[in-house]
Amino acid sequence: MGFFNFFSKEKKEVLDQGLKKSKESFLGKLTRSIAGKSKVDDDVLDNLEEVLVTSDVGVDTTLRIIKRIEARVERDKYVTTSELNDILRQEIAELLMENNTQDTSGFDIPVGTKPYVIMVVGVNGVGKTTTIGKLAYQFKQAGYKVCLGAADTFRAAAVEQLVIWGERVGVPVVRQQMGSDPASVAYDTLQSAISNEADVVLIDTAGRLHNKKGLMDELTKIKRVMQKLVPDAPHDVMLVLDGSTGQNAFEQARQFTQATDVTSLTVTKLDGSAKGGVVIGISDQFKIPVRYIGLGEGMEDLQPFDRREFVNSLFESN
C-alpha cells in the first residue's frame, strides 16, 4: 500500500488542524519579518534565521536551511519576498528527503516478521503510554492481532493506564506485580504473543533518565531476554517525544540515543502548541525516521509522518 494513497483527504484535514497553531505562528512571524521588503536580501535572511530558531527548528537545522536559501538566491539572482514561502517549503522538504530515511507506509509491519516487536521508550509525561494505546488501535484497525506488555513496573499509574487502553482497544495486556523485573514482563509478553499468534507486540518501558547507565542497562537486559524467544527482537526501538516542549525534546532525543539504539521517533502533542517546527529539526539532526506524529486526543489522531505533506501543511498559506 503506497503512502500517498494512504494519505486521504480526511488525514490531510487532521494534519492541517493539528498544525494550525504552528502554522499561524510561523506565517505571522514570517510576514512581519519581510514587511516592507520586496526582495530576499541579507536583512530578510537574518530575519528568517530568527523566525526559524524561534519556531523551534533548532540552530543547526536553521543554518542549513539559510544556506540553502542563500544558494537559491545566488542561483536565481533575484528572489522576491512573495516567493519566499514556496521556496522555504521546497528547500526544507528537500533537506529532509536527503536524510536517507523512508517515510512509513502507514500502520504496516514487514512481511515475514511475526511477532513484530516494538519497544517504546521515553521520559514520563511525553504521552508514551497513550501513544502505545493509539498504535494498538491503529494496528488492530489494519487487521493485525496485537499484544501489549506493561514493562514500566515502577509506576502503578503507567500499568493501570495501559490496562485501560487495552480494554478500550480490545487487546490483551500482559502485566505483573509492581516492582517486578521489566525484562520478565517483556519475556512473558512475547511468550503470550507467540502462543496466541499475535502479529504486533508493543512493550512499554520505564521513563527514567536520571541515571543513563541504569536506563541503558535495563533496556539492554530487556532486549537480551526477549531475544531468547525472538532472536531479532526488538525490531523497532521507538522513542516518544513531546513536541510541545520544543528544545527540551531535542535534549531528550540526545540522551536516549546515547543510552540505547533508537530506531524510530514519534512526536506527540503537536496540536497543543506552536512548536511544530521541532519535528523538522529532530528529523534533520538525528537522522532517525520520525515514524508517527500525534495531532490530537482521538485514537485516529496519531498519523504516519510524511515529510513533504508535513512541510506543505506547515508552510502553505490559507
In brief:
With 318 residues, the protein is an alpha/beta fold. It has 13 helices and eight strands. The chain is 51% helix and 12% strand.
Taking all residues together, what is the mean pLDDT? 88
By DSSP, the count of extended strands is 8
The proportion of residues forming helix, as a percent range, comes to 40-55%
Number of helices: 13
Gyration radius, in Å: 21 Å
Poorly predicted ranges? 1-6
State the major sheet.
8 strands, mixed
Strand order of the largest sheet: 3-2-4-1-5-6-7-8
Q: Note the run of SSEs as H and E.
A: HHHHHHEHEHEHEHEHEHEEH
Derived structural class: alpha/beta
Structural summary, described in words:
The chain is α/β, with parallel strands linked by helices. It contains 13 helices and eight strands. An eight-stranded mixed sheet has the order 3-2-4-1-5-6-7-8, with helices on both faces. Helix 12 links the parallel strand 6 and strand 7. The chain is elongated and about 65 Å long. The two termini are 30 Å apart. The N terminus is likely disordered.
Fold topology:
Layout: H1 3-6, H2 9-18, H3 20-33, H4 42-54, H5 59-76, H6 84-97, E1 116-121, H7 128-141, E2 146-150, H8 156-169, E3 173-174, H9 182-195, E4 200-204, H10 212-226, E5 236-242, H11 247-259, E6 264-268, H12 277-286, E7 290-294, E8 302-304, H13 307-315
Parallel strand pairs: 1-4, 1-5, 2-3, 2-4, 5-6, 6-7
Antiparallel strand pairs: 7-8
